[in-house]
């Protein structure tokens, strides 16, 4: 069914918008954990990946702003990192299937390695304009690429433009994008549609770059696939649109995410990373670091849910900023960062505690407000 | 007879210029540290009221009745140590030495102080070297020297090498401000001035004081009798000495004046550079301080004990005395002594830090966190960053590091990994770096202590607390700028050179952190032959006792005003590709963005204003805002700049110790000028 023939309901669009938030949010721990596995933050790989992490936070904000405009207060559910599964993306739907180019891709949290980099490239894989309408299926929020996903969202958003209301808009990154004139939706109804489209444009432009020009070369080894290198090295291929470039702290502000990641694969030599195990024993410093990260990330998720529901959240930024330290502490203590109790090698008692935490918000999120949380912190002195 | 060893403290003290005859005393507490028992509660760093032991000033003490800016005097005290303690650091003191009080079985009847300050800024090397992109010290390496200031001012032959030019006696005489040494003794001594009219004198073992009527004094009007351009008064003094009722030394500096001489075409030199202005003098200075304590004076058993030496420097006003630098001058000097002069082998020995040693949260770590939390009062941090900085400030001795925002030191720039000096946010400190480094890094020793803290090898209290003398040394230095020596405000990169210090600091009357004064030949003086020379040259001077009067401040901007004006916010240097973001230079020492006490409403701060503001300071380009566009305008206006102090030190304020506001500024407010939060960009270039 072509996009022109599909009629979306508001619930279907909201489901897609929640999926958009899910996917954007999912990338943050995935990328961030790999970045902080690098021992020297001075490495270009660290800087490039962190710049993507920062931009993904912007994407979360933009996606959540669109969601709120269509009446959905987005939830920040616990992301799952397993096998090769990337939420809401099914690369078999893309033609040609990009997994041919990135066969080693893994979706688990891990050190920066080729498996992670290939996974990153898959997430940000460009949407190739085949000249045919996108299969914007309102029933299923699964697509072959992020670009295709957002193009489908645009179809539904356009149909339902009369529902747009400028509520619960967040603008946390304004000063980092001096040329991004309107990262929020301020107009109701059809007047707000251009703003919605602008936010979608920002996400896709930053993530994948613009669509390929006609006449893209074929990959030398895989004739059915595009030659990614020539795509980005082509002078005729514009990078991130100027208005969507970071103006504060990005070492390559014109590079889309895919280009940043792909450049690291092309570079060949990856930086030194921390050695770590995924399931350290309970009672070890690594396990304690994992517990802290799970605790803070869980609080952060709740804080995000509250913030994008229009509420004031005490210490929101502190929870957000502390995540990097939590992640680094995991690596420094020999543990792969864990973001939910699913990722832990824990006892039934600990599992129950986490389940309780993850099922109910605890606000304010002041330090040691939670007796259960305090109990998790028991760790042997390292001295 | 007492076997006590006597030492002067602070080892390095700071007077500060002001355009008033009146003064207050330099702070003897550390910025950022709550002062125990203070009511209302204040943090350290506030200067002390003249004539008091430790009563801190309020906003009403910053200017005199005419509105002129008071100078800051440096007060020196002498402490007694046992022989065993004198070899240690920290070292417990036995007592302070005051006239009229006992020392052992004798009485202190007199203290004879000798001070010799000078200004050599016009006869030294430039700071900004074309095409140099590394640390300033590199310009002195491999036998090289930077170009010299006033290169065209040389009465000798062309082609003479730089050091010979700088040591030419005529050039030294005419470009050095040197009124010679001065002595002062007793309690409540009247001012003894560093000026042309006052006779030079030194301590003499024979008679107590020895006059030096033939001392070859030199000052601008003598050197340039055909006239000087002095917009706020001629540079005709470097300050004065006096003593208080206990016989402690009080050193005053100059009045913040600057004078230009005439060029060959008869016109006066203009100000054209931030730091290296040919044809200009200012009235800052530095030099050695020494003291002899007289016991049972006039009695058959009269005894005189040397208290060794210290150093005094006169620098810019401290416009935000309670705002702590995250990397302070203390951190620099301490790092030098730890790594190069065997200060505490339990911390660092055989070229390595000792990671089995516990740090002290209060002494070694807390100031880094406190300094971080205070930055919001002098810079335009965005709201999320303020929350983050405050979270750092809440870290206490009992806080589990892994529970904090600094867990893993994820946001601390690692000085052991040089390429991190090119990385901006989120790495901290979020300020511009030293010469040749884009961003500021903690010192190696600071990072070591942070590592120990992060690894939970940190105790709440030190094994051995700092004594009153140690505390004075630390307080004096920690209230000054470190890290970004380009060139800096108080002292500069030479504090990292171990050869400037007395190497064997464990010797009796020496003690750590002592700059080693060069012995001067004061016999057979000729009024036309200078006593001083170019003096200490980094990486070139050899031997010990290398530092002449004026040798520490000569590496600072001439005049200091232009550098102060310039250093608000800048792009990074070296530049970072694609990046035009502006960062702060020295915000804790040179406030950039401030909240005015007069604009507090319902206890809340009003909008931020530029500290340097008013006519002539505006620019379309954020890279040039908050400073005089015509740098000469700083000369008549520097003393109008306001001070940022704690609300609890503001009479009529809200008495909220958590807030810091600007007071007593005489610069006008443009109420329509909105200062957006960081980040802001240099508009003169565009990111690629």
Unreliable segments of 5+ consecutive residues of chain B: none
The number of strands of chain B is 29
Overall mean pLDDT of chain B:
95
Distance between the amino and carboxyl termini of chain B: 75 Å
What amount of the residues of chain B lies in strands? 15-25%
Low-confidence stretches of chain A: 361-383
Shape call of chain A: globular
| Fraction in helix of chain A | 40-55%
Just name the CATH architecture of the largest domain in chain A. Answer: Up-down Bundle
Say what the CATH topology of the largest domain in chain A is. Answer: Ferritin
Task: Give the count of helical stretches of chain A.
Answer: 11
Overview of this protein structure:
The complex is a heterodimer of chains A (383) and B (688). Chain A is mainly α. Chain A has two domains: 10-267, Up-down Bundle (Ferritin); 276-383, no CATH class. Chain A is 44% helix and 0% strand. Chain A has helices at residues 10-36, 44-69, 114-123, 146-159, 193-208, 228-233, 257-267, 285-307, 316-332, 348-359, 371-376. In chain A, α1 runs antiparallel to α2 and α4 runs antiparallel to α5. Chain B is α+β, with helices and mostly antiparallel strands and 688 residues long. Chain B folds into three domains: 5-124 and 159-323 and 486-560, no CATH class; 358-462, no CATH class; 568-681, no CATH class. Chain B has helices at 83-86, 162-166, 169-175, 220-223, 329-340, 361-374, 383-393, 444-454, 468-478, 560-566, and strands at 5-9, 12-16, 23-25, 71-81, 93-96, 102-103, 106-115, 118-119, 177-178, 182-185, 192-195, 200-204, 208-212, 237-243, 249-252, 258-260, 280-282, 285-295, 303-315, 348-349, 352-353, 359-360, 458-459, 569-570, 583-584, 593-595, 608-610, 643-646, 660-663. In chain B, strands 1, 3, 4, 5, 11, 14 and 15 form a seven-stranded mixed β-sheet that branches. In chain B, α5 (329-340) crosses α9 (468-478) and α6 (361-374) crosses α8 (444-454). Chain B is globular, with a radius of gyration of 24 Å. The mean pLDDT of chain B is 95. The chains are: A mainly alpha (383), B alpha+beta (688). The A-B interface holds A 36, 40-43, 47, 50, 172, 175-176, 178, 245, 247-254, 288-289, 292, 315-318, 320-322, 324-329, 331-332, 367, 377, 381-383 and B 358, 382-384, 387-388, 391, 400, 402-411, 414, 417-420, 422-427, 455-457, 576-581, 676-681, 687-688. Chain B: InterPro entries: LodA_C, LodA_N. Chain B: Residues 600-626 are annotated as: Disordered. Chain B: It comes from Skermanella aerolata. Chain B: Residues 9-312 form the L-Lysine epsilon oxidase N-terminal domain. Chain B: Residues 431-575 form the L-lysine epsilon oxidase C-terminal domain.
